[in-house]
Structures are given as structure tokens and as C-alpha cells.
Structure to design on (105 residues):
């Protein structure tokens, strides 16, 4: 699903859904107030007002380290990815290698 920000008068009109009602520009403030007065907006506001409690989550749900794997595995995956990219563009790498070689001679 693609999200869009429609804040200008020029862009908003094309997304007007109710063709039976004349178009009227809706400001961000008006939209925000309308959303939070709606029952879903109230529910979401109440839900977000409660601070997050890590103790209620499963211990395996969140990683306790900065990364999910150790540095060796990260390095291995990174080199593997770069090698794959080099293989896909081998012509460019060979051409650049020859070009640099000719420039140094």
C-alpha cells in the first residue's frame, strides 16, 4: 500500500472521493481534528498514550544486541552481496581495471 501526503490545494482535489459533494480544500489541522474525533482516532490516541512496557513482550521478540547476528556473519553477508554485484557487472569492473592500468603506464 502506498501512502501519500496531500497537503497542497493543487494536489488534493484529484483524490476527492465524494463526487456528489463539491470539492473543498481540507487543511492538515482540520483533517487531524476530524480524525481524532472519529472513534478509530480516539482508540489509537488512547493506545499510543500508554507507555511501552518491554516486560509484557516475549523475550525472543526483541533482540538484545545491536544486530541480530555477530560481526563475522554480517561481514560475510556483506562480502557475498558485493561479490554478487561485481559478478553481475563484471564487464564494468574489467573495463575500469584496464582503464586504470593504462592510465598508470
Amino acid at each position: 500500500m502506498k501512502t501519500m501526503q496531500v497537503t497542497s490545494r493543487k494536489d488534493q482535489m484529484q483524490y476527492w472521493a465524494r463526487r456528489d459533494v463539491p470539492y473543498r480544500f481540507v487543511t492538515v489541522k482540520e483533517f487531524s481534528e476530524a480524525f481524532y474525533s472519529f472513534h478509530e482516532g480516539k482508540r489509537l490516541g488512547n493506545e499510543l498514550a500508554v507507555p511501552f512496557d518491554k516486560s509484557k513482550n516475549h523475550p525472543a521478540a526483541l533482540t538484545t544486541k545491536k544486530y541480530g547476528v555477530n560481526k563475522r556473519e554480517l561481514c560475510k553477508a556483506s562480502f557475498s552481496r558485493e561479490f554478487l554485484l561485481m559478478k553481475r557487472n563484471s564487464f564494468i569492473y574489467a573495463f575500469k581495471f584496464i582503464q586504470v592500468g593504462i592510465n598508470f603506464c
